[in-house]
Amino acid sequence: MDLNELIEDDKENEEENINSVSDKDLPWDGETENNSTEPVLFEENEDAESDNNYILNREKFAAFMDVMHILKISCNNVVITDGMIRQFSNNKSCVIEMDLTNLLDSNANLIIGGINKKCELLEPFRKQNVDVMLKIDKEKYRFMDNRSKLEFAHHLASSVKEDKYFSEEELSQILKIHGDPIFNISMDRSILDRLDAYQKSLAANRLYLQFQKDKAKFSMSTMDQSNSTNVVLLTLSSELNRTDLEMRVYMGMMAFLSCFNSSINELEIQFFNCKISRLGDTFCIVINTEIEIKGCEQGIPIRILAPARNDD
Predict the structure, then answer these.
(1) Which of 17, 75, 105, 230 lies 20 to 30 Å from 299, alpha-carbon distance?
(2) Distances from the Cα of 300 to the Cαs of 67, 99, 101, 139, 238, in angstroms?
(3) Are 55 and 109 within 8 A, CB to CB?
(4) What region does 30 belong to: left with phi over 0, alpha with psi -120 to 50, or beta?
(5) Of 166, 189, 214, which residue sits at a domain end?
(6) What is the pLDDT of residues 142-195, one digit of tens each?
(7) What is the pLDDT of residues 90-122, one digit of tens each?
(8) Residues 133 and 219 in one domain
(9) Which helix (H) or strand (E) holds 192?
(10) Within 10 Å of residue 294's Cβ, how many Cβ atoms?
(11) What is the CA radius of gyration of the chain?
(12) For residue 224, what are the domain limits?
C-alpha cells in the first residue's frame, strides 16, 4: 500500500489507534488564559477545510524534521498559520519566521505542541528514510507511512498563547527597521562551527558586538566570574557602512543557537537601526538563511530578528 492509498484507508478505519498520542499528555510550562482567538484553527472555525493531506517524500520529510529540530531549541510549541511560522522564542529574545509553503502549502494551519516529544516520536521515520503522509482534519492530525501511524489531538490557540502567531503587520508594530544596514555579512559553515564550539565551551548566553568607529568585533565570554576567557569570533572593517559608531551591544545567543543545525551552511547577517515598541530607538540583527529540500529548486526560507541591547 502506498501513501495515496492511505488517505482512503484512513477514512474507512477511524477506530482508536493503540499508538496514538494526545498533546494533552505532554508536559506544558504553566497555565495560560483562555481568551486568545488567534490563530483561528479547526476547532474554532467551522469554515475550515475538513481535511488536508500532505505527502512528504523522504527528502521533504527530512527537511520538515530539520525545521522541528531547529525550533525545539527555542520554542515549546509551533504555530503554523497559512503555511507560515512567525513567533517569539520562549524567552522572547528573538522572532523566528519560517515559510513552509514550499513544504506544505499556504492552506496549512496547525499547532504542534510539545515539539521535543514530537521530534522523538517522528525521528524513526527520518532514520528509516521513508515517505510520510501528514493528514490534518477537524479533530486530529496524523503522521503515517504504510506501516505506522502517529495521531495527535489538536490544541486550541488559547492553550499556547505565549507562542502565538503574528502577522507581518503585527511584527512591524513590534519592531520597525530603519534605513540601510550598518553592515551585511555572510557567516559560512566554518564560522558557525566555531561559534557553536565556543558557545558550548563557555556556556555563553550572549554574543557581543563592539563598534570602534572603523572596526566592529563579534565576541563572547564565559559567565563564570572565575574564568576570564574571552573569544573574538570575527572582526569587521571594510564591511561597515558606517564608521561613526562607538558602542558595545549584545544579542541573546538564542538567535544563533537555532542556526547550528547541520542543514544550514551559511547565514546572511544584517545590522540595522530600528525602533522596538518597548525599547524605543535601538538596533537589531537580522539573520537570513534557508533549509535545503533535496531535489527541489526552492528550500525553506528562515528569518530571525533579535534586538541588540546596550551593554551598560
Answers:
(1) 75
(2) 9, 6, 8, 28, 31
(3) no
(4) left
(5) 166
(6) 999 999 999 999 876 666 666 788 889 999 888 999 999 999 999 999 999 999
(7) 888 899 999 999 999 999 999 998 999 999 999
(8) no
(9) helix 189-202
(10) 11
(11) 21
(12) 171-310
